[in-house]
Amino acid sequence: MLILASASPRRHELLLAAGIDHVVRAAPILEEHRPGEPPARLVERLAEQKVRAVPSSAADVVLGADTVVCLDDLVLGKPTDDDDTRRMLRLLSGREHYVYTGICILARGRTIRDVAITRVSFERMPENEIEEAFCAVSLASWGAQDNRTDWKQQGILYLDRALNARLHTVPVQAVRLGDGFWSARRKATTERSLPTLLDLLEEHGVVDNFRRLAGRTDLARKGPLYTDSDLYKWIEAASWALASNETSDADKQKLRGDIESLTTHILAAQEPSGYLNTYYVGDKTRFRFTELSRSHEDYCLGHLLQAGIAYYRATGSRRLLDAGIRFADYIVEEFGPAKRPFVTGHPELEMALIELCRTTGQTKYLDFARYLFSGVEKDRLKLKDADMRYMFSGKPFVSHTEFEGHAVRALYAASGATDYFTEAGDPAFKRTLDLLWTDLTTRKMYITGGVGSRSGGESFGDPYELPSEQAYAETCAAIANVMWNFRMLTLTGDARYADVLERALYNGVNSGMSLSGNLYCYRNPLASSGEKLRNPWYDTTCCPPNIERLFESLPGYFYALSRDGVYVNLYHM
Questions:
Q1: CA-to-CA distance for 573 and 312, rounded, in angstroms?
Q2: According to the CATH classification, is domain 168-281+291-337+347-386+398-536+543-568 in 1.50.10?
């Protein structure tokens, strides 16, 4: 029997109609809880009453135990609606473990500030600070979770605990794609693209950059300062290939061996502090985190985390993930409002940190992502307006009204902000995301779903500046467009986001790799006089492993689940 505690008569009816056995009021039990009394006593009292409760619409959730305290009775002037109730009920579907050990309730001009449940204190707040404070307390109350979910159940985004997600992703290993449009593309990616690109990464010294830090001092550091990220993206792509049902056993064995070997080199290069970067070493050590607008240290960490998460979700191995966590912990401990200032010169870390929070249940990563979006470090870092426009970072995310600057940076920032809203529910973020989506789709996107019309700065142009032959339309920007719209789709369930996702994937992204799987486009113009556009290698080789990781993870984009049923997002004809 499942017994829920709730204060709302209307919710009582909805819960009963949904098949819940019994509903009781939580207020009498909560009133017995004395300030300073251990939370365990409240749990015992609830257990004595055989009460299992769910959080109110104004609260975030801490998952991992077996009791949830509903605090509807303490919500002052904050009515709930049917939509919130549906979200609450969706959380119950197939779940056995819910615990709300803290208090996070938005009231009229008031916020319950303490999340320990042993002390409940109110603090008067100006109206313009309510949303920000609510968001901060929400993140604190999300709390440490007991992450008992099987790694095989986690998709490319893990949204089972995201209160604001309408759709939940399906793991890559749960999808089997038969013959169809993507069969040959994905086969070429696995059998041709991945092995040839790894050979090129070896040939151009990207792997040696790690080996030299593990004792091979005879090796010179090669390539631009962001090459670490290219290897991490390759590992992410290979990890999703391991999870795919279409990858042969022989290919899986080879890929796993390659990843394990690369991971050994990466771990050997990591410093005891957790710092891991092959460029800022030796005489460049003194420049660490001093040139954040260009250093890509944050960007490389983001891709390290995404690679580690993908490998974990494909195999259950935490070797690479734990290396990423050590570096992430170093960042979180060293930087912040009361510590050293930080900014993402190339947004990417925000997405990775939020997915790390979803994977580990550690909310400090969500907190740090919020700090990155806050834009509070402009003065301490002496950021120039032109730099912030180009980076699409450094000023409050919610102050943006249109896309500008570097297209990939901007869309990665929007993707991370969507992840943040999905977890935290700050309405100012949703308003900004809606403004940006309208700006992109009505004024700055090609018919192919490609974005970023200018080669200078790989940037967005003015509204309707969409030339065909001069189009830049970087492959990575189209991939970012897919990633962002997939996140907006899981957040809302609205088909218009699936439409843009599909347009960009089947056109702006698909043109970025040859049918043979070993030639790549960096830019994707809509008209050409015959110049050579595809090459096997670029000094800045961000696009090849990026398109590989998307194609290998495609099974995770095809379907989504909700209480309404199964959503079919893409077609494979």
A1: 31
A2: yes
